[in-house]
Amino acid sequence: MRKPTGDFPIRRGLLKTRRRSTFKNNNLFEIVKLNITTRQAAEIYSFQPNRHGMVCCPFHADRDPSMKVDSRFHCFCCGADGDVIDFTAKLFQLPLRQAAEKLVTDFGLSVTGDFPLQHPKIVNCNNQIQTLYKCRAVLSDWRKRFAPKSAAEELHPCFVASLHYTAYVQYLIENRHFLTEHRKEVQQIAQRIRKYQTDHFQHPQNALAG
User: How many Å apart are CA 100 and CA 146, to the nearest integer?
Assistant: First the structure.
């Protein structure tokens, strides 16, 4: 006989489902927080931290930068505070899990099969660092999607492109302070990736937006 909990019997299947769901969420959140800082998220979402890591807070009418962004964020004016997932959730008005999934997609993170990636898209961005993050996400997606299943299989052009461009895109991201000197190269890389999309995706619904 099952032992009662208060006035209700234990529903083992429901408890297992809830525990599994909680574990998956925690695992996803941990992957995101270990790989992405709030400053990186702020930069990809078009904020430009000054040399002190301060930006104008998007959560109140802020004229002078009052929010510090590093691994976390904190506004010294309105008190907004949290980690990178909290920042993204609040910025885009999303539930925490959807905010974490957005970060996974936008940064091209590798995650387990429990968290399938949406295929990322290259979009027109005025912000060079955001363009590079989008390029990295697309290349990471191609490297997984088009990886050969056997040594005899012919390499897909998009897989070859991911091998060719990924290291240089990562180099530009890590040296973002010199991006003004590489503006044309960033634009050319994005254009080439769009061309691969046009040349090698037959179905519009599977293509990456240009």
Answer: 25
Residue 2 has pLDDT above 60, yes or no: no
- pLDDT of the residue at 70: 92
pLDDT tens string 123-179: 455 567 778 877 877 887 788 888 888 888 889 888 898 899 988 888 887 777 777
Angstrom CA distances, 127 to 138, 148, 156, 165, stand at 17, 34, 30, 19
From CA 12, how far away is CA 141, in angstroms rounded? 38
Architecture category of domain 25-107 in CATH: Alpha-Beta Complex (3.90)
Domain boundaries, the chain: 25-107, 128-206
Using DSSP's 3-state secondary structure scheme, residue 82 falls into strand
Quick check: 47 and 64 in contact, CB under 8 A? no
* Under 8 Å between Cβ of 90 and 102: no
